[in-house]
Amino acid sequence: MSASEQMAQMLNELMGPRRNAVAGENIEIRFDDEEVCKFFLVGYCPNEMFVNTKTDLGPCGKMHDEGMRKAYRDSDRFEKLGYEEAFLSFIRKLHNDMQKKIKRNMDRLAITQPNVAPPTEESKAKMEKEVEELTEKINECMAQAESLGAAGKIEEAQQVVEQADNHKAARDQLKRALVGAPAPVTDDGMAKQMEVCKICGCFLIVNDAQQRIDEHFLGKQHVGFAKIKATMEEFEVWHLYSGIAKTELLGRFRF
């Protein structure tokens, strides 16, 4: 985001998006105005869910207002303006992109797990390229964490460091597979078995410490993609039970 865009967003928050209206002009904002976030009206704004994660979508820049949401849902144009379809299309793309990432990570894990056949020359070349890409991502994360730390944003910096740690774990597996080294072992001498989270695509240690498991499930990326998955399922229910009053069914949703 440019400096001018950042300034505009700050002014919107302080004075409202129609701060430049001339005297006497009707400045009442309606839910169908351009500056109102339509995704927020339908359910929630995905841009708010992944701040400072690998899936950061950037700032939304539009108005999020509970009053606008209520006005939309109480209006006779509810579900007639295409907002729901646009929202569902957007989160479906996020979900599909994540499914592709999960598959890529599972394919990588199938190569790097212990007790598998040695990689072919073609597989080695692919893994070497992935090692380079992961190294770049690690460096980018560490530079970002250092910048956030210098700005006093400690919690955000820690989240970025966690991303770097995930990249390092994936890179270490690839490096071990390339040289034929044994997998790392746990305190009891057993080789670490890895798995891929089916929700957010992160690499996890099988039977890891409960604290680390809990931290993963509470992380922004996991929570965000779990919410997207649940929302898609809820919208399917919405259409299946079209005979139920909209206000009654909407009350069952937990966006």
From TrEMBL:
Residues in coiled coil: 124-177
Cellular-component GO terms for this entry: U1 snRNP
Superkingdom of origin organism: Eukaryota
InterPro entries with a match to the protein in the record: Luc7-rel
Keywords: Coiled coil
The UniProt record lists the keyword Coiled coil: yes
A GO BP entry: mRNA splice site recognition
An MF annotation (GO) of this entry: mRNA binding
Family the UniProt entry places it in: Belongs to the Luc7 family.
Listed name of the protein: LUC7-like protein
Organism name: Plectus sambesii
Lineage start: Eukaryota, Metazoa, Ecdysozoa, Nematoda, Chromadorea
